[in-house]
């Protein structure tokens, strides 16, 4: 539990970035989360992301297709505005179904393992069981989730330039493109050589990096703190939402139901008090209006806020997965290095035994046992040792190449992860500003409307005269 004096969102910047490196033309700059770098800028660091333009996306107009058949599904109109050179038109659009979004997400994860690819909403199995997945409420909720998913991709300088993203918006033969992408994925083919065989054998879920990089430890700590803040906020707001309007008047926690019951009681009192019936009826109507305002605010402000909060938490989980994958790349390098050291030591031991400069007795219990086993098998002569050395020399050469490749891969992945954290930090700040801004606007609207209702009833209540 965080302390009361600890700001769980202390890394959030509420002002929009004013760095001239990221200025874009007036049209897209009005939307959140779009930056564009200036070529040749001296202020850009080695780990800063490279922006080539903007991509503004939207998901709207859900339509039920094949409505009278068992193969019915919902399609969504996806559209964009962009100045990226990879797109053939500045305003691409097409209709896509949920499975198309799943394909896009799955293959972006495979094609860009170092990028934080946002998570899609679940399939909501309960709606499928009850047959409610075509209800307007469910389709609108999914539309908002898919809209947020594409927004996060569009704010990413690498993902927004993906050929798969371009085809997702532009292709009129999307299913053909899907099959081509599966058959000929971009990038190098995954290797199944020595590195994979060794790391699959050596690594396990309990392995830890022995020489952790302080930069990534700080990042992991920041992610932990951010997710803890989101989880705490989600828990508190869920509790508040349930107490305000949980939809169950029998629970005793529904404040909107309590105001409704109070309004009915006041109206009944008005029938008994003939002299003040009219003011009491007006007061009862105000209570009903206030109860309706509470319910409306829950549906239009609190519920969307909780949905966005949970979505942001899953987005942070995707970022955590990238940090974990970076650790895995470093762990690959460390384990391969250790394996190379062990094979080299065994080769040197055999060379020392053959040359007569050393015996196996001073090289540890493992070497002694290996020599005893070789003696039992009749393979302890120099000829056998020379053959072993020859095989070990080949393996050492392969391992040296594998260690070099693993080291280069680890360094490159670390550099990419640093750039990715800059991108995610910007996306996180943008979403936090948008999410909390919408919450504040909804609360302000609620309190303004509530004040108008109560101020309207005050003069009527004040006109009631009480004889003392």
Can you walk through the features of this model?
- With 468 residues, this protein is mostly helical.
- It has 2 domains: 134 residues, Phox-like domain (PX Domain, 2-Layer Sandwich), CATH 3.30.1520; 218 residues, Substrate Binding Domain Of Dnak, Chain:A, Domain 2 (Up-down Bundle), CATH 1.20.1270.
- It is built from 12 helices and 3 strands, in the order αβββααααααααααα.
- The chain has a 3-stranded antiparallel β-sheet.
- A hairpin with a 7-residue loop joins strand 1 and strand 2.
- Helix 9 packs antiparallel against helix 10.
- The longest helix has 81 residues.
- The chain is elongated and about 120 Å long.
Structure summarized in a few sentences:
Residues 54-176 form the PX domain. The protein is mainly alpha-helical and 468 residues long.
Strand content: 5-15%
Terminus-to-terminus distance: 55 Å
Number of domains: 2
CATH topology of the largest domain: Substrate Binding Domain Of Dnak, Chain:A, Domain 2
CATH class of the largest domain: Mainly Alpha
Q: Given the structure, what is the number of helices?
A: 12
Strand ordering within the main sheet: 1-2-3
| Gyration radius, in Å | 32 Å
Strand/helix succession: HEEEHHHHHHHHHHH
* Mean pLDDT metric: 80
Keywords: Autophagy, Cytoplasm, Endosome, Lipid-binding, Membrane, Transport
Pfam family, one: PX
GO molecular function: phosphatidylinositol binding
Family: Belongs to the sorting nexin family.
